Amino acid sequence: MDKFIIKGGRRLTGEVTISGAKNAAVAILPAVILSDEPCIIENVPSISDVNISIRILKEMGADVEFMGNNTYRIDPSSIDRYCVPYETARKMRASYYFLGALLGKFNKARVSMPGGCPLGDRPIDQHLKAFTALGADYNLSQGMIDLKADSLKGNQIFFDVVTVGATMNAMLAAVKAEGLTIIENAAKEPHIVDLANFLSAMGANIIGAGTDVIKIKGVKYLHGTTYSVIPDQIEAGTFMVAVAATKGDVLIKNVIPKHLESITKKLEKIGVNIQQFDDSIRVWVDGPLVKTNVKTAPHPGFPTDMQSQIATLLTLAEGTSIITENIWEQRFRYVDELRRMGADITVNGKVALIEGKGKLMGAPVKACDLRAGAALIIAGLAASGVTEIEDIFHIERGYDCMEGKLRALGADIEKISVPETQSKSEKESSKEAV
Ligand code: EPZ
Fold first, then answer.
1. Is residue 8 within 8 Å of 417, Cβ to Cβ?
2. Residue 243 lies in domain
3. Which of 95, 161, 195, 304 for a ligand 1 pocket mutation test, highest count of atoms within 8 Å of Cβ?
4. Residues 207-239: pLDDT tens digits?
5. 0.90 surpassed by pTM
6. Same domain, 283 and 388
7. 407 and 351 in one domain?
8. Ligand 1 pocket, 165 CB below 6 A?
9. Which of 213, 228, 243 is the last residue of a domain?
10. 434 touches ligand 1 (CB under 6 Å)
11. What distance in angstroms lies between residue 349's CA and the mean position of ligand 1's atoms?
12. Domain count, the chain
């Protein structure tokens, strides 16, 4: 099992380049199945969730070539099955995007149920609502989801909750369905727009992505294309918070400032200086951090995937801050670990009360999910003394060479391997990820 060892107290300075967006890549890679010709996908992050997506494509018969420089050439024409191998699919929650892509291409799909996970219940009722609206029947048995349709016909889909995954899956299933599909109460995250742009680059007819109404006119044929994944909004936000937590000064490159608006506004309220350029931002701190309240919400609100990171920053501000988590019912599991580092945080349901003390102390801690792990790295960078972080496989699911990028900014962080008595939590967690 690998660990991060961080000696805290070093300011982050210099320049860092953000990688492609995890939550866009894990939807775009399955979407290649819908094409009738090879596609080239660029700026793909080197993370384990992408490795699992690529492995699934290969196991289903696609011809996949890694061309170097974060670029893959994928020819889906040799895909000859519609069932995603159970063991591989279970390793990644986003494997459910193969449901929408396979249904959209073959009128049938069979993928393992995405289990519960560190964030709490992960229902898929809205995904199934979208698929049935388009004419598919489903059957859930032995942990698998089976979808079948004689043919897919466009329809109106109104989501009861704003859901990224179901919005993505509805688009994937609808792009080749006959007629018009209208998706209402759609999610508006940047990765939703990125998937829509990729599908459009293949010849799909989609308008409205990024708003709460997406209209799709089905087409018969989708041609190959070359497409570059957008920069990762959450990786950029994570680095912004890390710079603030170490009172550093860093130029963060390969970003889309518009995607960072809610994070930028919140950090400026906390006392962080941010200067925006076309595709980069400079982040620095030259004064005290100020207590601030945060409520997570679907885009363009403050992203839930930044909640644990900003909470860590607020433990370093003097005074009481309030965090309200409105998306996931169990997204405060990192709090126990921060308490081991001296944080004073009280959690009551979806609200966390943070009594900022202005400092943290290094300690041995454990990552319980992807973003919780990122928060612990930030805490370790800011803390006095040494922090050891276990179960870093969570972090490596969604951050492309985090420790290398941090070391280049002056952090004292290294990854060490410990004897292979795989921890219980790694055994459990490697079965399912968020
Ligand atoms: C995506 O998860 C992201 N994962 C999550 O990021 C992110 O936290 C989440 O969107 C919200 O932005 C990927 O993109 C791979 P949802 P997803 O469907 O699609 C409820 C990370 O750290 N819901 O938008 O699973 C659900 O319970 C990960 O990168 C239903 O009720 O999230 C939740 O309360 C963690 N029924 C809310 O909607 C459904 O059928 C939002 O979930 C689906 C969802």
1. no
2. 2-19+231-433
3. 161
4. 999 999 999 999 999 999 999 999 999 999 999
5. yes
6. yes
7. yes
8. yes
9. 228
10. yes
11. 19
12. 2
